[in-house]
Amino acid sequence: MKTLFQRFLCATALVGASFTTSAASAEETAQAYFAGGCFWCIEKDFESVAGVGDVVSGYQGGTLENPTYRNHDGHREVVQINYDPSIVSYEELLKIFFQSVDPTDLGGQFCDRGFAYTTGIYAETEEELKLAEAAKANAAELLGKDIAT
C-alpha cells in the first residue's frame, strides 16, 4: 500500500489515505482524489474521460485503519482517478468534478445523504491545491452561491 498525505480542500487539514497503485502505473500516470457522493456514481463520470485509466473507489479522511463498505464512519467515499497528464490535465478533471456534483450541498449528494457522501477534493501538492481553490472560486462565481466542497 502506498500511503498518501493530501490536503483536504474543505477542511484544509492534512489527512492520511491509502490506495493501492502498482509501481508501473505510478510512473506512467498521475492520480486525483475526489469525493463526490456515491463513489460508484463518480467513478462512472470519469471512466469515459479521454486520458483517464482506472478509477478506483475507496475511503478517505477518517481515522479507521481499514474502512469497509459496512464500516466507514468518519470517512468520505472517494475515487482515485489514475490519468495521463499529457492527455487530460488536473485542471480539466476539476472542471468535470464540479459539473458532476452539486458543490453547494452540505448534506451529501442527491439521494445519498450523510457525511460519507459529501464532496471534497484531496490535493497532493501545493499546485493541485491552488488549482482546486481556483476551481472552487470559479464554481462559486458561476453558481452565485457558496460552495460546500
Sum this structure up briefly.
With 149 residues, this protein is an alpha+beta fold. The chain has helices at residues 23-28, 39-47, 90-100, 126-143; strands spanning 2-8, 13-19, 30-36, 52-60, 76-83, 108-109, 112-113, 119-123.
Task: Describe, in plain words, how this protein is organized in 3D.
It is a single chain. The protein has 149 residues and is of the alpha+beta class. Helix content is 30%, strand content 32%. The chain contains four helices and eight strands; from the N terminus they run ββαβαββαβββα. Strands 2-1-8-3-5-4 form a six-stranded antiparallel beta sheet. A two-stranded antiparallel sheet has the order 6-7. Strand 1 and strand 2 form a beta hairpin. Helix 3 packs parallel to helix 4. It starts with a strand and ends in a 6-residue tail after the last helix. Mean pLDDT is 81; it is low at 1-26.
Descriptors:
single chain; two-stranded antiparallel ribbon; 32% strand; alpha+beta; 149 residues; 4 helices
* Topology, number of strands: 8
Give the SSE string.
EEHEHEEHEEEH
Structural class of the secondary structure composition? alpha+beta
Approximate strand percentage: 25-35%
The biggest beta sheet is recorded as: 6 strands, antiparallel
The dominant shape is globular
The averaged pLDDT comes out at: 81
Strand order of the largest sheet: 2-1-8-3-5-4
The number of helical elements comes to 4
Gap from first CA to last CA: 27 Å
Proportion in helices? 25-40%
Radius of gyration: 14 Å
**Poorly predicted parts:** 1-26
